[in-house]
Amino acid sequence: MKKTTLCYIKKDDSYLMLFRNKKEQDENEGKWVGVGGKFEDGETADECLIREVLEETGLTLTSYTFHGIVGFHSDEWGEEDMYLYSADAFEGTLTSNCSEGELKFVPASEVMSLPMWEGDKYFLPLMLEGCTSISMDLFYKGDELIVVRNRAVVSGIEMDYAKLGHGEKTMVVLSGLSLVPVAPNGFGLYPVFSPFLSEYTVYLFDRRLNMPEHYSIEMMAEDTYKVLQSLGIKSAYLYGASQGGTIALSLAISHPSFVNKIALASSFAKAHDSFMKVISNWIEIAKVNTPREIMEYYADMLYSEAVLSAYRETIVASGEAATPDDIRRFVICASALCEDYNILDDIAKLQIPIYVSCSEGDKVVPKEASLEIAEKTGATLYMYDSSFGHAVYDESPDFYPRVLEFFNA
Fold first, then answer.
1. DSSP annotation of 206
2. CATH numbers and ranges of domains, the chain
3. 160 and 206 in contact (C-beta within 8 Å)?
């Protein structure tokens, strides 16, 4: 993958911006950007920064700050990792003949109103605020930003999420227990949620990164709510699969006015012995086995025979890159499911429309768990037959159309 530097140089209350209007076949043509360019062989990021700034501007940086890495992914221009910098001191005279375009110091208050890549409006405010831990991926289709993978930091919580689309309403996706994070796969899930995007902005949330050793369902729900609030989201349609559904219910119990509707898949509000046995086995496997062996158990328990016969190796391979910290976090999240958990009486008080779906072929969460939720809340219930597994949300082609129909009703 190509690596580049991108620097915003400050002078007084202005930043040096470059209007790209001179090069042919320039991905940045007609846009204002910072200054910088591609790494040369053997260069460090700092070395590339100093060289590129000098070549483009005539300035030698004497004080600069690294803010993080932003991934740029384009169907037209390929992929690159942008090493993001700001600088507040330099020597030399600004060139009047930049080969890339027009250089201009722009007042900080006007920078965000310049024509620029849409994704720049996500990382620039963070950089201007002095954040030095930016971790973000921007996915483009042409000039359209279709997916943002970002990291929220609020109240000591660090949580990755992906944002899809620009719809007026907000849909929050809370995934089930997973060995590897979901948010980095936001682009891969874009086709799944694309039917929602004309009306909804879709957020996919992982569990927090800096996870305590004991992390209950209630804590997961509250952390997610705090991050949602920090993003300026005032209300949302919640969709939760498996453990994610239980988190959605817990969030609704604590913050009912925030939730418009809830859609649940293969979820529960009360721990069942058969379910806890599956999770306990999974925890023991995770503690002593390789990611592949963990994923083999995962695949065999979650998916139907039809899906396994066609895709078992693909499913297993999807988790083989799990790190020791991924496994640690997985065990912590799984352990929360082995607690004596029962919120049936609490959800009975909810005055929120709920849609519940499950499968008769689920080998993880018994169908009775969904029946209990429907009975307590008056929820709409749809039960798939035994040809589908726990991951009916991955298996059935009509699953997400049904969720969208429910949200729009």
1. P
2. 2-142 (3.90.79.10), 154-408 (3.40.50.1820)
3. yes
Is residue 364 within 8 Å of residue 380, measured between CB atoms? no
Q: How far is the CA of 257 from the CAs of 124, 252, 254, 403, in angstroms?
A: 32, 8, 9, 21
pLDDT digits 0-9 by tens, 40-66: 999 999 999 999 999 999 999 999 999
Bridge-partner residues for 381, per DSSP? 356
For residue 187, pLDDT beyond 90: no
**Would the pTM count as exceeding 0.85?**
yes
pLDDT band at residue 185 using 50, 70 and 90 as cut-offs: confident
Nearest CA among 264, 251, 212, 259 for reference residue 233: 259
The residue type at 408: N
Q: Tokens at residue 29, please?
A: 């043509």
Sign of CA dihedral 60, 62, 63, 65: positive
Longest CA–CA span in the chain (Å) reads 74
Over the Cα atoms of the chain, what is R_g?
24
Query: CA 242 to CA 318: how far, in whole Å?
Result: 19
Question: E strands, 206-360, where?
Answer: 236-241, 259-265, 354-359
Residue 159 and residue 4: Cα distance in Å, rounded?
26
- Give pLDDT tens digits for 333-352: 999 988 888 999 999 999 99
CB-CB contact of 136 with 152 (8 Å): no
For residue 246, which of 151, 364, 156, 159 has the smallest C-alpha distance? 364
> Measuring CA to CA, how many Å separate 113 from each of 68, 106, 126?
23, 11, 16
